[in-house]
Amino acid sequence: MTSGPLRGFRDYPPPDAGARSEVRRRMRAAARRAGFAELELPSVESFELYQRKSGEGIAAQAWSFVDKGDRPVALVPEQTPSLARVFVDRAKSEPLPVKWFTVGRSWRYEEPQAGRTREFLQFNLDILGVPGPEAEVDLLTTAALFLDECGAAGRYVVRLNDRAVAEGIGRLYGASDPGRFFRAVDGFRKTAAPEFARELEGAGVPAHRTGEIADLLRRASAGIPPEEVGRFLGELADRGFDAAAREGVGRLGHLLSLLGRVGLSDRVVYDPTVVRGLAYYTSTVFEAFPRSGDSRSILGGGRYDHLIELFGGAPTPAAGLAIGDQTLELLLRDAGAWPEGEPPLDTYVVVAQPELGPEALALVARLRRAGESADADPLGRSMSRQLREAARRRARRALILGLREAAPGALIERDLASGAQREVAAGSPERSA
Questions:
Q1: Are the C-beta atoms of 275 and 178 separated by less than 8 Å?
Q2: Which of 216, 236, 293, 363 is surrounded by the most beta carbons within 10 Å?
C-alpha cells in the first residue's frame, strides 16, 4: 500500500486546505460582484462529450472508463462542454445574456510538473448571448478584479489573439491545414527550430517560408503593446490578408480599445503565438502569464460561438475563461500573497482551573450561536499552554475564566495582539460590533 497520493495528485492538509478555501471564497465573491451566478456541474460525463466537442487533445488526456452500465464515461477534463449541455437543456427558460461561473475539479492524464497536476481545481467564467467584444471585456475585467484582490496586481499579462488573424497569417505564408498550423504555432515557444519548421511544412507551408514565420513569431512573442498592434497587423494585412483575417484585425482593434476604456491596457498585449488548443474556439483567444519567470499560463479562454449548436441548441454567441488553481498558487506564492490558511478565530476560551472545562464549553457554544468563531482546549492543559494554542490558532482575543484578580461574575478579556486586557461581565462576553 502506498504511503502518499498517486502520482500527479496532491494532499492539502491544514493550513494549505484553508488557504485554498479562502482563494475559492475570493473567486466566488469577485464573480458575484460582476453579476455572475454559480453553476454546479457533475464530475463524470459521457466520454463522447469530449471526443466530439473538445478535440483530440483533451479526449486523449481524459480519465475515461466503461461504467457498470457498459457506457464510455470520463472524469471531467474541462467544464465548458458540460456548461454548454446544461445551457441547451435550459435555453428556453434562460433570458439572455447568461452569466455563469463554476468552481469545480477536473482531471487530465498529463505529465505532472510544476503548475500541472492530474487533478486540479478550475474557476470558470462564461457569458452566453453576447456577440460583441463586451463579453470578453466583462470576462477579463472580472478575472483582473479577482487576481488583483488576491495580491497579483502588476504580476501578470494577458496575451490576446484572434483565430481568424492567426489563420490569415498561415494562409499568407502558404499553410493549407489550419488545424496543424495552429498546433505548430501553439507549440512555438516549446519547440526547437528544426522541429517547428517540419511542423509548418506538414501544415502546407513551403520550406523556404518557414523561417519567415519563425522570425515573425519571434519578433512578436514578447507581446505587442496595444498602441503598436494596428501598425504591426496593418503591415501583414497589406501583404494580402483576406476578408476573414481583416475582420479578425477589426475585432482585435475594437477589443483593445474597450480594454483601454476599462483600464486594462497596462496588462494586455497582442501575441500571435496564442491560438489555444481546444477545437471549439472561433475567434478571440487569450492567455495570461506571469510577467517574470517561465511559468505555465494562469488563465486561458476565448470565444466559442458555435459550441451550443453542436449540442443541438440555437446559434448562441459565447465566450469564457478558466483559471487553474496550480499556476495561480505559484503566482500568489511568488508574490507573497498566498493566504495564511484558515481564518483567525474570534475567541479562544481559556480556563485557569481544569474544573472550569464544562463552563468553557458552554461559553464556546454561546459565542458560536452569537455568530463568533470560538474554541477551547479539550485536553485539560495548563493555562500557558492554552494561551500558546490560542496564539497558534491566530485568535484575536482570549476569554479567561477563573482568574483570581477578576471580580465575581467577571471574565478577563485579553487582546492577543497587544496584550491589553479588561474585565467583561460573564453574561455578555460577545464582541461589540
A1: no
A2: 363
